[in-house]
Amino acid sequence: MISEKTIIKTVSELYKKAVINLNEDIKISLEDALKSEDNELARLNIQTILKNIELAEKNNIPMCQDTGLPIVFVKLGNVEVENLKSSIEKGIEKATEEVPLRPNIVDPLTRKNTNNNIGKYIPPIDIELIDKDYIEITIFPKGFGSENNNALKMALPSEGEKGIKDFVVETVLKAKGKPCPPTIIGVGIGGTSDLAMKLAKKALLKNISEKNPDPTLETLEKEIKEKINESDIGPMGLGGKTTTLDVKIIKAHTHTAGLPIGVCVQCWANRYATERIYDN
């Protein structure tokens, strides 16, 4: 059995890692964007972002003051786990106290702060059942400067690929500089309204260098990215070629009468950390 103590320790360490150390694919993408930019202000903004990342790692401190709402993705295999839900919550509390992390979680009506980054239905825990001999946990801290710009459309089937592309581009252009571009855009297509949004978030966990195995979706991703980057919104919304670093799409089958489209906007700090735990 995988113990409660192991889950608590893993979750706490993953949260700490996610807010301090940005994954290499994002850093490489930002460096590539810097090379291609000829707008001096855009170059300055990207250089500042890269310096911020460097200092966070060097000083072992969070890269952003908004340390996010912790979202937890769990791939649960054929293993026994002790008190999974409460262990995850205790791990979030432990990280909040020890890193320390800003306590972001409040009651939506009274705005009273829970002070520990957990609350009713928080953290949201997505469980995917897998036929493996491990449990895999991903901590995805989502800042709300970007989250506030998410969008959902219950499109008509007749809108097709053009409707998808137009809606995603429209959503990002409407956000302008608010989500701290250059962004990464996750898109969920199909399913139900809630599933489309969940898939959009899961799309943000894909490595930037990873190509979509579906040629149609790969083409759609490229077309959307090109259209967004023609906008000249640029880094931090102050102009430049790089408004988004990448677009990632996941699709699900859906009802014959629907075409749900979920768009999850993420700032340059696409923070997440993952670990697999095997049952010894």
Structure, explained:
This protein has 280 residues and is α/β, with parallel strands linked by helices. The protein is built from 8 helices and 8 strands, in the order H-H-H-E-H-E-E-H-E-H-E-H-H-E-E-E. It has a domain at 145-266: 60s Ribosomal Protein L30, Chain: A, CATH 3.30.1330. Helix content is 40%, strand content 22%. The strands form 2 sheets. The chain has a 4-stranded mixed beta sheet. The protein has a 4-stranded mixed beta sheet with strand order 4-7-5-6. Helix 1 (4-20) packs across helix 4 (84-98), helix 2 (24-36) packs antiparallel against helix 3 (40-59) and helix 6 packs parallel to helix 8 (215-229).
Comma- or semicolon-separated keywords:
280 residues, alpha/beta, 4-stranded mixed β-sheet, 40% helix, 8 helices, 60s Ribosomal Protein L30, Chain: A
Offer a quick outline of the entry.
This protein is 40% helix and 22% strand.
What structural class do helix, strand and pairing data support? alpha/beta
Q: What name does CATH use for the topology of the domain at 145-266?
A: 60s Ribosomal Protein L30, Chain: A
The CATH class assignment of the domain at 145-266 is Alpha Beta
Helix run count: 8
H and E string: HHHEHEEHEHEHHEEE
Number of strands: 8
